Amino acid sequence: MYILGIETTCDETSVSIVKAYDNLKFDIISNIILSQDIHKIFGGIYPEQAFRKHQENIIKILAKAIENFDINKIELIGVSAFPGLVGALASGVAMAKTLGVILSKPVIPVNHLWGHLFANFAKIDFNSIDFKDLFPALGLVVSGGHTNLYFIENFLPIKIELIMNTLDDAVGEAYDKVARLLNLGFPGGPVIDKLAQNYTPTLNEKPIFPIPKSKDFSYSGLKTAVLRHIKNINFNNLDPEQKDIEIKKICYYFQYSAIEHIIKKIELILKEYKGNLRGINSIFVGGGVAANSFLRKRLIELANKFKINLYIPSVNLCTDNAAMIAIATFFIYKSFFNKINNDIIDFDVYPSEEEGIKIFKNN
User: Fold this and answer.
1) Residue 323's CB: how many other CB atoms inside 10 A?
2) pLDDT tens per residue, range 267-281
3) Residue 78: which residues within 8 A CB-CB, separation 6 or more?
4) What is the pTM for the complete model shown?
5) What domains are there in the chain, each with its CATH number?
6) What is the pLDDT of residues 41-80, one digit of tens each?
């Protein structure tokens, strides 16, 4: 079946067409993404501007996504309904519901965070592994707004349980705030990752920032430690070369602590389940921070250590995109809405996952 996906949770406007097969193969026909550069001026996401830009761009993005495609072939429409910025979400949902009426096709609400996990199905080869052998699994979503860890009993039907989330700052948000402290621009993730790769610690050099030790994911303390360190350095007394080295050093050790915090949490869970009847077989990763080179390296090492499968999307599918929403639509439809035919599903938009998840529990 052909599925049209729409993504407008934050600052990316995206529309995609995906062909889904019953053997869980997914072909991405189109995946048009427009990022809103205007937020760079503010050094972070400005919700009102995000809403306006989605309103301006969504029809143009839709037109480009369906160019040279017979839209009447669409059988399902999926749209991010939660979590996210309410105004931004509403832009996408309004477009999806309008298309649903025009095409007489069901519109499926999608959990944006699950979408990041389902992005991995764009490349999983089921000729080399049976679907059932993927589970139980862990799902890690790392982004500007979320650092969530899930226990996944199954994807079809969906049985996903949130077991750990963000107490305060999410990992991507921490990257953005540290980048702002260093005047590196927005978004902070890619530039900090690049600068960190260009720093080589000296022999016996110790980390300058602690690894957070909270029960759940937490980055406010690490951010404060970086701020304190920067205040103790008088950049004005450093020559350009010394300043450059110091900035790279801060990026390196911030990234080390931020990523090791995640790795240690996952390692604890894997040890807890090791030998258990529900022993973990796979880790699925998604979200913008999943593009981070050090996180990918450490996850590969962790998966090798525990001899489990690791799935991380290609870098272009780590950012918010509608292809992952279209793929997630297939699984959500099969799990919760497969008896509806062309009935209208009544749903709203929700800023939090906790609120939005009730949509599925009520069907």
Assistant:
1) 30
2) 999 988 765 556 899
3) 3, 4, 5, 6, 96, 107, 108, 109, 110, 325, 326, 328, 329, 332, 333
4) 0.94
5) 1-123+316-362 (3.30.420.40), 128-312 (3.30.420.40)
6) 666 665 677 678 878 899 999 999 999 999 999 999 999 9
